[in-house]
Amino acid sequence: MIPSAAPVNVMATRASATPDEQDDSRSSSSTASPIPADNEESDFFLGANDSESSLGVPNFQDMQVEDSCWPPINRLPNEILISIFAKLGATSDLFRCMLVSKRWARNAVDLLWHRPACTKWDKHTKICQTLGLERPFFSYRDFIKRLNLAAIADKVNDGSVLPLAACTRVERLTLTNCRGLTDSGLIALVENSPSLLALDISNDHNITERSINTIAQNCRRLQGLNISGCDGISNESMINLAQSCKYIKRLKLNECGQLRDNAILAFAELCPNILEIDLHQCVHIGNAPVTSLLFRGNCLRELRLASCDLIDDTAFLNLPDKRVRTYEHLRILDLTSCTRLTDAAVEKIIDVAPRLRNLVLAKCRNITDAAVHAISKLGKNLHYVHLGHCGQITDEGVKKLVQSCNRIRYIDLGCCINLTDDSVKRLALLPKLKRIGLVKCSSITDESVFALAEAAYRPRVRRDASGMFIGGEYYTPSLERVHLSYCINLTLKSIMRLLNSCPRLTHLSLTGVAAFQRDEFQPYCRVAPTEFTQHQRDVFCVFSGSMVSQFRDFLNTARQFEEIRETLPFRIGGSRIRGAAARRSQAMANYLNAAEGEGFDDEMPDEENDFEGLEGVDMAVDPAAQNPPHIPAGLGQATSLPSLAQSIPVPPPPPPPPPPPPGIMQYSFASSSHAHPAMQHMQHQHAPSVGPLAYSSFISNEPATGNPPLSANGRVQASTANLTSHSIPQAPGSSSASGLVDGAGASTAPLHQQSPEDHEQ
User: Fold this and answer.
1) Per-residue DSSP letters for 566-600?
2) Which domain holds residue 545?
3) I want to staple 80 with a disulfide (CB 3.0 to 4.6 A). Which of 76, 113, 428, 701 is the partner?
4) Which residues contact 92 (CB under 8 A, 6 or more apart)?
5) What angle (nearest 5°) sits at the alpha carbon of residue 657, between those of residues 656 and 661?
6) DSSP 505-557
7) 278 backbone dihedrals φ, ψ, rounded to 5°
């Protein structure tokens, strides 16, 4: 039904209404509506409030509108201002922001005082004076959440911390090495700090159980505690702490020899959220606490038991079978100098903790290749492994480790005297190797160093943001730390090549190597530690930091080394055989036994955002590139790999290419990536053997540069030969060479106390 039009008199009435009546929100279409009372608009309690409650809701007439226009910066909400101020790096910038206006000062003062910089004594004094003001403009003590007095530890005592006792909202308190601090000062700081989450009083020898009991009573939200070296704290007070502070996540109890099993058992049973615990040199800790920590620790991620001499295989063999439970969260395990452990313990550890990333077994002298074979089961999860002083390990164990764990970034095999060049050549195949320790591996020679140097130029394939592969080779040498002290067979020639092949090298130790006991090298060496004996000082030779590049420049420019430079495979500043070396390294990478598609590191992407390695078992190897005619015979002999050569399949050499046209004969065929563009199109291409189902072999996606073709998943296409025992055809007077791949980050498990032997590394 169509509604009828409004009566004419009503429309006329609306048209004749005054503007004020039209804007009245309570007007209606009915002319019979009563006229509002004059005082109704000013009624605060009933204005625009239909419920007629006593809570007034102001309407538009009650609001005060300012005519002035604020600049955009002043219209920002406080939350946005605080977010902007938080991105300022310097405290001086924050201070300048406080001087702009009162509003800016109120929003910046919290950030400025959140963590006051007590880095010098005069700054500490000024902070204490400000906190002691009778009528401060701001309540500064309420802003302080973090206090760190480690920088002025030698001057800290009970009196110097009393002004800080007014700060009752401190969450993190660091008092490392404050040896002048006693229970009186610490109790004053913590008794009124219920929000305390983390406390570090390491090496504060005057702290006793009084402080720990006060913390247990007043700081029940505590999550992190470091009492390393505090030998005055009793075992009973730590049990009391475990009973009160059940949110503990991180415990560092290094060198607390007074602690017994019942204290650690209390933490294991009452604190289920423990993530990290360090019991380094807790010499009275036995097997039961270790078993309990692992069994009850649902979140345990890091367990350090270095120098806990009482621990033996029982601590781990008592754990339930992996079919009952595994400890997926455990990432770091340090068993340095747990001399009673054997292969059985290592096998059990790997069985129940299959995702270990850092494993330290240094000075566990009873372990053999059987333990290394067990470690190999960690596969791609293993990033850091320390096997120093495990003298029973041989080349066979290293071979298995390299085959299975191709993501190792850090490996230390110092004092493993049974290792030879064969082990180092296999280690050179690790695509992410960043640090290698070979101290006192006296059997290795220049061949090992040549392998490390040549592997720095292993070709890698790039990918874009969507994961698609980008054609063309490039090289990323990234070996950063090499420890070769007391490898007495090394010469200057191999080290020169290593220095020039690894531009990212930041540490090179050659202590005790006769070839480097020369006065002209001393200006580039680090100063020997003061605790060394005179003999240790005489043989000390460590290059680190900027001294590495300065030493490299010296060797590359000094006239007395010109003869050695002439024998290097490529002249300084050039890359004459870099392409050929890269292809040999690529061929050696086939030795890594990797599953299809494992080239991507999805969990920890490479810094270069590239393909991790060309690890396919079907990679074609160019024999001509493996044995370039211009490599000196002496170098070829020095870098041979007789053992690895037997495991690399190589297709038969192609027939020689047709002669090039005049004018381009000067370009070498040793590396297609460095050939003349006209020559790249003239190279003869062999069609691979094609099976009835090998449809992909009909499709050639080889780029114009002459690089090996890539398959759909980015792997290099080649013949389907398996990794069986074959010999490599070699030209007379030449041999194959090893390769090392570049690396991307390394995990580090820091040692707690350095010995003179550690300094030599």
Assistant:
1) HHSSS-TT--TTHHHHHHHHHHHGGGS---TTTT-
2) 406-652+715-761
3) 76
4) none
5) 140
6) --EEE-TT-GGG--GGGGGGSPPPPTTS-HHHHHH--EEETHHHHHHHHHHHH
7) -120, 115
Domain assignment present for 525: yes
Q: Considering only 175-189, 223-237, 460-474, 629-643, which range has the smallest mean pLDDT?
A: 629-643
**How far is the C-alpha of 615 from the C-alpha of 597, rounded, in Å?**
9
pLDDT in the model for residue 323: 82
Q: What is the CA radius of gyration of the chain?
A: 36
In a domain, 102, yes or no: no
Do 372 and 423 form a contact (C-beta atoms < 8 A)? no
As a dihedral over the C-alpha atoms of residue 175, residue 176, residue 177, residue 180, rounded to 10 degrees, the angle is: 10
Is the sign of the CA dihedral 291, 292, 298, 300 positive or negative? negative
Summarised one tens digit per residue, pLDDT across range 115-131 is 998 999 999 999 999 99
Does 728 fall in a domain?
Answer: yes
Q: Which residue type is seen at 600?
A: F
How far from the centroid of its chain's Cα atoms is residue 173's Cα?
26
Q: What is the dihedral of CA 589, 593, 597, 600, to 10 degrees?
A: -60
> Any idea which of 115-119, 240-244, 414-418 has the lowest mean pLDDT?
115-119
Percent of the chain residues past pLDDT 90, beyond the cut: 53
Region 470-487: what's the mean pLDDT? 77
Among the listed residues 263, 259, 264, the one whose alpha carbon sits nearest the alpha carbon of residue 303: 264
Whether 300 is in a domain gets the answer no
Q: How far from 576 is each of 174, 565, 631, 638, CA to CA, in Å?
A: 56, 13, 10, 18
Residue (of 297, 327, 293) closest to 311 by Cα position: 293
Number of domains in the chain: 1
Give pTM, 2 decimals: 0.67
Please answer whether residues 287 and 313 qualify as being in contact, where contact means their C-beta atoms are separated by less than 8 angstroms: no
Question: Distances in Å between the alpha carbon of 353 and those of 320, 374, 375, 570, 614?
Answer: 12, 12, 11, 47, 29
pLDDT tens-place string over residues 198-235: 999 999 999 999 999 999 999 999 999 999 999 999 99
DSSP per-residue string spanning 108-156 = HHHHHHSS----SHHHHHHHHHHHT-SS-SS-GGGT--EEE-GGGGGG-
> Please, are residues 300 and 327 in contact by the beta-carbon 8 Å criterion?
yes
C-alpha–C-alpha distance, residues 207 and 199, integer Å: 13
